[in-house]
Each structure stands twice: as C-alpha cells, then as structure tokens.
Amino acid sequence: MNEKITMNKMIKRSLTEVMAKPLDAEARARLAALAALPDAAINFTDQEDVTAAKITAGHYVIVRRGGARVGAGRKPAGKLGKHVRLSPLAIKRFQSYAKKRGLNFSAAIEAASEWVK
C-alpha cells in the first residue's frame, strides 16, 4: 500500500521551438479545413461564458503583454521628497553630525527637527 505518487513533468517550449517544428500533411489538411469554415458554422455552445465576476474570482487569468510586472520596482519608503536650499555651512554641520552618529543626511535633518519642537 506504500505507493509513491509521481507527478508528470510539465514540458515548456518557447514559441520559436513550436513554430520551428514542421507540420505533417494531416495537420496541414486539418488546419486548412478549419480555415475554410465560416464563423457561423463553428459550434461554441460547449464553451462557458467569460464574465467579469469569474475573472475577478480568479477563474481566468488575463494575459497582458509588456509593461512592468506586478510588484516590481522600489517599495515606497513612506517619505516625501522636498527640495531645500541650505547654506554650505549648514550642509557641512549636518554632514559632520550624521557622520559622528552613524546616520544618513536625512536622519540628521530629522534629528535636528526634534530640537526645533
């Protein structure tokens, strides 16, 4: 009763590999017969309807081409950018303060803002 369950390996091929394989005469004849049929002659009754509800429920996957993949790029740090013009002396003081305490420039400015309160 100790049967080992094995799964079939999925075979993946690129489109160029599939297109490089020549069609035999039987497959060419079958494709030609399908191409000759008018659209009205094709029976679509065995296919279920694709609705927005089924797509949002995850029954179907919409394949998109190009663009960034979901979740790609830098994650937001929760900080806003603001340009501030500082004198060279102020920049030098912030840099030395940050270096002494092992902080970056932004953290040094945040620490200085605590003094202002």
Q: Can you describe what's shown?
A:
By secondary structure, this protein is mainly alpha-helical. It contains 5 helices and no strands. It has helices spanning 15-20, 25-36, 52-56, 88-101, 105-116. The longest helix is centred in the last third of the chain and has 14 residues, at 88-101.
Indicate the proportion of strand residues: under 5%
The total beta strand count reads 0
What best-fitting shape do the alpha-carbon axes yield? elongated
Q: Please compute the radius of gyration using only Cα atoms.
A: 32 Å
Largest sheet report:
none
Compressed to H and E, one letter per element, the order equals HHHHH
Report the helical percentage. Answer: 40-55%
Average pLDDT metric: 81
Distance between the termini: 75 Å
> What's the number of helices?
5
The chain-level structural class is mainly alpha
Low-confidence stretches: none
